[in-house]
User: Fold Anti-sigma factor antagonist from Thalassobaculum litoreum DSM 18839.
Amino acid sequence: MQIDTATHGELLEVAPKGRLDSNTSPELEKALLERIGAGQTKITIDFGGIDYVSSAGLRVLLVAAKRTAAAKGQFSMHSMSPEIREVFEISGFLTILKVYPDLNAVLAAG
Assistant:
C-alpha cells in the first residue's frame, strides 16, 4: 500500500492507495498512530485512491478516530467513491465518523 501525506496548515491529509484490508491495514494503522502519538491531532483520510475496505480497515479507522478524539483532535475522511461510502453506510460508520465530499469541505469545516 502506498500512503501519501500532505499538510494543510494544522491538518494532516493521509492518502492511502489501493485496498484497505487485513493485509494492508496494519501499515495504515502504524502510520496513523505514529502521527497521533507525535501530536498530530487534526487528520483527514483521502479515500480517492481506495477501491476496497474490509472490516479490518474499518477497525483501523475507528481506532485512529478514538485516539484522535482522546487527544482532543479531529478525525475525518473525504472523497469516497459511492461503493466505499456504501460500506460505511451499511456498517453504521457514517453515523460515528465525519465524512466530507472533498478536501475543500474538510478545510471549510475547520
